[in-house]
Amino acid sequence: MRPALKRVPGWALLSAVVAPVALIGGWLLAGHLQPPGYSLLHQSISSLAARGAHDRWIMTGALVLLGSCHLITAVGLRPARALGRATLAIGGLATLAVAAFPQPHSGTAATHVAAATIGFIALAVWPVLAARGVDDRLLTLAVSATASASLLGLLTWLTVALNTTYLGLSERCLTGAQALWPLAVALNAQHVAAPPPQAEPPESVTRR
Predict the structure, then answer these.
(1) In a domain? residue 154
(2) Using 50, 70 and 90 to split pLDDT, how confident is the model at 107?
């Protein structure tokens, strides 16, 4: 018999759910409160939390919540390999650093760019580092490698888009996917680890 897979605790599932809600809800609300002319397609998420931005606390708080959720999920994602979980945690710490070192009103901050770069890379490669030979389909090497390749593809698009007009779109596609993948892995791991339903005992046969 194969050993039973470790289950993901409820608090880790909750953090995995909150992460994409915080990120997407944060950029939608903060973007809505910006002056006319702000575009979700063309301007970065960081600009919503930059110094001088309108209601910058909303996106800053969303980034803090997102990074914290990644850390919590990394601790509770027990079916995944430790290296992948550690890399997910690094992504969470980098996200907290992004919030702690915002972009200036004009120009760029080296600390912000460095933290964002580390976070993007860590959150793109952690799936393949978390892979292991288990029944969980989202933790198999083939699926995990495909996930990392897809996320790295989105990261490449973002890198190219730095010099185009669709920076905001590419960044939101990448960060949204990176926030959703831990949730997908956690939900699937919980489903796989759930005990199978108990079969009903056969009815007793009465002798004539």
Answers:
(1) yes
(2) confident
Whether the full predicted model's pTM is greater than 0.85, yes or no, is yes
* Side chain identity at residue 77, one-letter code: L
Q: What distance in Å separates the CA atoms of residue 191 and residue 7, rounded to the nearest whole number?
A: 9
Residue 206 vs residue 155, higher pLDDT: 155
Q: CA separation (Å) from 91 to 38, 43, 54, 63, 170?
A: 27, 22, 27, 12, 18
- Domain hosting residue 33, numbered range: 10-191
Q: Evaluate whether residue 206 is within a structural domain.
A: no
**3-state DSSP call for residue 6?**
coil
Q: Show Cβ contacts of residue 37 under 8 Å, excluding neighbours closer than 6 positions.
A: none
What average pLDDT does this structure show over 94-115? 93
Count up the domains in the chain and report the number: 1
- Rounded to 10°, the helix 110-129/141-161 angle is 160
**Stated length of the chain:** 208
Give the model confidence (pLDDT) of 75-97 as tens digits. 999 999 999 999 999 999 999 99
Residue 40 covered by a domain: yes
DSSP state of 205: P
Task: Assess contact for 182 and 77: CB atoms under 8 A.
Answer: yes
